Amino acid sequence: MLSMRCKIRVSASGVHLFDRVSGVNVLLDEVRVPAGQFSRAPRYLSIALTNACELRCFYCYAPKHAAALDRDRVLAWAVELDVAGCLGVGFGGGEPTAYRRFAQLCSEIAQSTSMAVTFTTHGHRLTPELVSSLRGAPVGQCGSRVGHYDGALLRPRSSRHSLR
Ligand code: SF4
């Protein structure tokens, strides 16, 4: 039996049900919602946690100085966005796994909100320890960047990989 705890987001498109554990999305587009009840947050938020990255891809647009966002501020944003109807946060950069205590931040957001937590990475820092920490977070998916993912730690069947 399928068991889900759905988060609900309402917009001009209808009523959006989302389960971060299974990844199921259902849009009830026949439901009309008054504009005054629309969720105030964006459906999904992408955050560049840090500009730091040890690689130098020729097509990269990210500045290479190692600026990083304050973790308490990121957590506070996540809590506020969750209440306002955001369904998920995706971390990028730079290289998000270069962010200090990255797995802990993912875990805190997962526990403090009902949002999905995902990230995009070059994959080189995905040690078994980090993958194990992220499984416990729980982080839904990590996306690999074309050209840098070596497939040694996660099977490269597609450009997105579940950590569960
Ligand atoms: S891995 Fe990403 S952030 Fe790092 S240099 Fe390449 S494109 Fe830029």
What do you see in this structure?
With 164 residues, the protein is of the alpha/beta class. It folds into two domains: 1-39, no CATH class; 41-162, TIM Barrel. Helices cover 20% and strands 24% of the residues. The protein has three helices and eight strands. The chain has helices at 71-83, 102-112, 128-135, and strands at 7-11, 14-18, 25-28, 44-50, 88-93, 116-121, 141-144, 160-162. Strands 4-5-6-7-8 form a five-stranded mixed β-sheet, with helices on one face. Strands 1-2-3 form a three-stranded antiparallel β-sheet, with no helix packed on it. Helix 1 packs parallel to helix 2. Mean pLDDT is 83; it is low at 146-162. The site of iron/sulfur cluster has 12 residues, from loops. Iron/sulfur cluster (SF4) binds at residues 53, 55-57, 60, 62, 93-95, 122, 145, 148.
Please give the domain count.
2
Q: Can you say what the CATH homologous superfamily of the largest domain is? A: Aldolase class I
Proper CATH architecture of the largest domain: Alpha-Beta Barrel
User: Could you tell me the mean pLDDT?
Assistant: 83
CATH topology of the largest domain: TIM Barrel
Summarize the structure.
This protein is an alpha/beta fold and 164 residues long.
Task: Supply the key terms.
alpha/beta, 3-stranded antiparallel sheet, 24% strand, disordered C terminus, 5-stranded mixed sheet, globular, 3 helices, binds iron/sulfur cluster, TIM Barrel, 2 domains, single chain, 164 residues
